[in-house]
Amino acid sequence: LSIGDNLALAFGIALEPTNLLLCFLGVVFGTLTGVLPGLGASTAISLLLPITFTLSPARSIIMLAGIYYGALYGGSTTSILVNVPGEGSSMITCLDGYPMARQGRAGVALGVSAFGSFIAGTFAVFMLMVSGPLLLSVAIEFGPPEFVALAVLGLTLVTYLGTGSMLKALMMAGFGLLIACVGIDNVSGVERYTFGLLNLREGIGLIPVMMGLFGIAEVLINIEKTFEKREIFKTTFREMLPNRADWKASIGPISRGTAVGFLIGLIPGPGAIIASLGSYAMEKKLSKHPERFGTGAIEGVAGPESANNAAGGASFIPLLTLGIPCNVAVAVLLGALMIHGVSPGPLLVKEQPEVFWGVVGSMYVGNIMLLVLNLPLIGLWVRLLRVPYGILFPFILLICLIGAYSINNSMWDVGVTIAFGLLGYLMRKFGYEAAPLVMALVLGAMFEVALNQSMVISHGNPSIFFTRPISAVLMVASIAILMSPLLLRLLGKRRPGLSLE
Amino acid sequence: MEEKRGQGVKRWLNRDVLSSVFWMGVGVVFVVGSFQYRVIKSGTSGPGFVPFLAGVILVILSASLFLSAVRAGSAAMTLDGFFPHSYSLRRFLVALLALPLYVVGMMYLGCFLVSLLFLLFFMKFAEPRSWGIVLAIALLGAATIYVVFSVLLKIPFPTGPFGF
């Protein structure tokens, strides 16, 4: 099919009234969670997943994807108006967004951020539309050894690009693989680590784990602190429209941020965060007046906000073409697709075009919705930010618990959520990241099945991973990444963020 | 002398030492368990292979962290400041108690009533607020949650003494 036919199919699906409504609900709920500090996209997707059980796979992914890019979009609002990042990827926006608000330019900062996000998000969807079918020919070459190598590379990158200790991140990836083994083995049918408990035969569910590690743990960490009253800046719709000078200063950073964000978003890891940091660093380097950065430079808002949205959109490419999640929120989307019986991968475009093109079409529509709705809705978000955390956190806890129950109508899942909430809290206290654990839990089943198939193909010879060109490249890349901190240490060029300890 | 010894223990007993011992234990449990499921079967990987591999990796990495943490001593993240404020431990313990109580309460009191009590308890405990405001927000919140999840989404929650 030509691009025109694909576009017609995409918009045909996206513009169905029910799909429009679901996309709308997704982007509004996503923006809401992005605006509220402490409730990320991954938790929001987990919370709304039970609602999608009665929907078709295409409709449910349209809504859940809307939450994801809506959250990326909404994160900047809190950074600019309150100086607290709503999402990790909007952290850097605080540096110049909040000073702009203090100078009475909150509206312009929000406007540039919204337009930049729209341009970047639309570019990423366009690239998804173009590259999806093209990647199909490459992805079809993927057999079990390539999928093993890809899973290894994905986990390696997530541990390498994490913000904390790489050693601890690797440990969490190992633990994630271990808990993915609990339950009946997909290949042999053997019951593993169930300790005679019937509930464990189905394995440990991704959604309760996610809600515990990200929802409950986040609340447990936050309630330890003082509930401070926030200073929130007001703005009007008229003030949000950038003038000619604002556009002139922003268009370069938006273009560069989009390009950088898109490329970084294709790589497994916390792409949106790295993309926004990378874009900020690049803009500062390119600027004739780098000293303005941190004091309210519009480039420091336009670049990073475009970059994180481009990265968010780009992460759909490996998800839908290879079945590889690039970050935790996308991992939850993968889990959601699997619950709906959809296996993302090379054959998705061919076998379930309504899912692939439905997502593409809805992302175009969703980006327009975000721009049209969120600029006038900013007043509502500001009012919402005035809700004290002391009132907000019991609701977050309650929704996590009820959401966990509604997955299987089972108290067991609520128990698992609480247990992982406690574990997540302790992990944060002891300096462990949850992202590698979740990624390993998601990739674990696919990794194990592909590993067993590879071993059968090679009659138990592990060299199969190094004799096939694609898997060999991926494996060598993984080994190089794993060894790089040691090599850097030997060379005496250790970087603190990438150290082993 | 005793005090000196205590300080010595405190110096190397940092967060990484404690956590590495825990994860090492987890790894050992999975490695030992993997032998029950056969690590190698008919010359290829058996059902115990991945847990064995991941368990061994976890044990090795934990041991490495343990050694570096002991060597680092008090230079690593110590247990001091584990709870940042005087009220942090109390808040954490209250939350820890309330979460399982919610699960038990749901089975006997039903979704609406237990949600109402949960919201009331946390909002009152978090910050001093008048009972009127707290009750109004909790009632509205519990009713909304009941309507959305139980009535609209038809999730079959356990029913309480009043039939909802």
Keywords:
heterodimer; A: 501 residues; mainly alpha; two-stranded antiparallel ribbon; 21 helices; B: 164 residues; 2 strands
How would you characterize this protein structure?
The complex is a heterodimer of chains A (501) and B (164). With 501 residues, chain A is mostly helical. Chain A contains 21 helices and 2 strands. Chain A has helices spanning 3-14, 17-35, 41-48, 57-82, 93-102, 106-139, 144-160, 166-180, 206-222, 244-265, 271-286, 299-314, 316-322, 328-339, 348-351, 353-385, 389-408, 411-429, 435-457, 464-467, 469-490, and strands at 183-184, 191-192. The model of chain A is unreliable at 494-501 (pLDDT under 50). The mean pLDDT of chain B is 84. Chain B is flat.
What topology does this entry show?
The complex is a heterodimer of chains A (501) and B (164).
Chain A: H1 3-14, H2 17-35, H3 41-48, H4 57-82, H5 93-102, H6 106-139, H7 144-160, H8 166-180, E1 183-184, E2 191-192, H9 206-222, H10 244-265, H11 271-286, H12 299-314, H13 316-322, H14 328-339, H15 348-351, H16 353-385, H17 389-408, H18 411-429, H19 435-457, H20 464-467, H21 469-490
Antiparallel strand pairs in A: 1-2
Chain B: H1 2-12, H2 15-34, E1 40-41, E2 44-45, H3 49-72, H4 88-109, H5 111-126, H6 131-152
Helix pairs in contact in B: 2-3, 4-5, 5-6
